[in-house]
Amino acid sequence: MDLHFSAEDEAFRAEARAWLDDALAGEFAVVRGRGGPGDEHSLFEERWAWEQHLGAHGWTCLGWPGEWGGRDLTLHQQVIWFEEYARARGPGRLGHIGEGLVGPTVLHYGDDAQRTRFLPGIQKGTELWCQGYSEPGAGSDLANISTRAERDGDDWVLHGQKVWTSLAQWSQWCFVLARTNRDVPKHKGITFFMVPMDQDGIEIRPIRQVTGTAEFNEVFLDGARAAHADVIGGVDQGWGVAMGLLAFERGASTLGQQLAFRNELDAVVAGLRERGRLDDPVLRQRVAGLHAELEIMRWNSLRVLSESAEDVPREALVTKLYWASWHRALGELAVDAAGPDALLGRELDAPEPGDELTDAQRLFLFTRSDTIYGGSNEIQRNIIGERGLGLPREPRP
User: Fold this and answer.
1) Hey, where are the domains in the chain?
2) What one-character DSSP code corresponds to residue 98?
3) What is the pTM of this model?
4) Which of 1.10.760.10, 2.30.30.140, 3.40.50.1240, 1.20.140.10 is the CATH number of 250-388?
5) What is the CATH number of domain 7-94?
6) Where does the record place the Acyl-CoA oxidase/dehydrogenase middle domain (predicted)?
7) Which tens digit of pLDDT belongs to each residue from 29-39?
8) What is the mean pLDDT of residues 61-72?
9) How far is CA 189 from CA 148, 199, 326, in A?
């Protein structure tokens, strides 16, 4: 594993750093540092304009092939971009689901007509996407979905419910897993659909959270339609596509997430210093532990992302469990570091839901969900045990 950056890489770093510093000092200064965990609802119009600004200047989809709007950049250069974006405190990306999940999936599993249809809007930042996977009865057990789709001429008609759908209220498209064959084992009869959100057969209901915000949603599909031409990977072949998409989540953006974690940890340390509590031996030990664990997280991610790796190594299986538990511990330290002030909010009559919370309160409350969504910690341990260590499968009812 070669973790050294070449002279060409460092030149790219200087280019990326200069562009970000300039872009985030002008009209987009208002979005700098916004849109992170618990703050996803903030400044939507401004952040969508930022997405389109990134696309117009060639700073989206950096690893995609040039013929499909990318820049064919190496993995090292993609890592550098995400590092510099976090360093510059770039806003939370509204286009990350399209760029990081949908785009690679269409490139790998789609045909040229589908690439022509879906990739330009993602690259330009003009079309936003959401994910239709989880259901009330099929959260961590994704293959247990009950949403169904039936063929109707050139279309498919979908009925069912999805839940915890981030950005659904703003998205133009949703990729949806639906059951198309009930006469085969549950993994075999699933299809991967691209569904337009602006149609009569879709109802979106926000889910109000403990933070006061509602970036998650329920999505009800009642006769929603998807074109047969927009099925990715073939009818009844959606499970393989879905698993491939989840593998793309372990891309270079994980390094950017960790740099964002570093910014949050630094902010907590700054708060301790301001309160004169950095000499508290217990708090210092917790800070040191989080620092060391964050470094371990980074090195493990670099190992997983190493270009020499032919297959996704089993070390990748610990990623979600590790970062979710780490982030939750950081949220706990943030409120402990604030001391009695952690009980006081900012404004009783805040202009937006959630704005009455301090940064420490928002971090604490939001990170409680990190160990639940995307596969709970319990599910992650099962995955590590069964797939990584080869232990017997947990008994099924």
Assistant:
1) 7-94, 129-238, 250-388
2) I
3) 0.86
4) 1.20.140.10
5) 1.10.540.10
6) 130-219
7) 999 999 887 78
8) 95
9) 10, 26, 37
